[in-house]
Write a structure and sequence with these properties.
- InterPro entries: Sarcoglycan, Sarcoglycan_gamma/delta/zeta.
- This is Zeta-sarcoglycan-like.
- It is a single-pass type II membrane protein.
- The chain crosses the membrane at residues 49-71.
- This protein is mostly helical.
- The protein contains three helices and no strands.
């Protein structure tokens, strides 16, 4: 059991070379006319997301309305 724990710790240790490569600055030249890609949700994905949010909102409102209606019909009191 001690050996397997020791092996796991050894796998998690970062070597000196990995540390240097991860922390050094990137000095690669950049193109002046680099094409920028838009970030976000566009097209049918956006419509589906809006539809899903609207569906959740309607479901919540109907659920709340039915809960209040059941409380009134069953004559529950606070």
């Amino acid at each position: 059991m001690d050996r397997s724990t020791n092996l796991d710790i050894e796998e998690l240790k970062m070597t000196r070379e990995q540390y240097i490569l991860a922390t050094q600055q990137n000095n690669l030249p950049r193109a002046e006319n680099a094409q920028l890609y838009p970030v976000g949700i566009y097209g049918w994905r956006k419509r589906c997301l809006y539809f899903f949010v609207l569906l959740l909102l309607v479901t919540m409102i109907v659920n709340l309305a039915m809960t209040i209606w059941i409380l009134k019909v069953m004559n529950f009191t606070v």
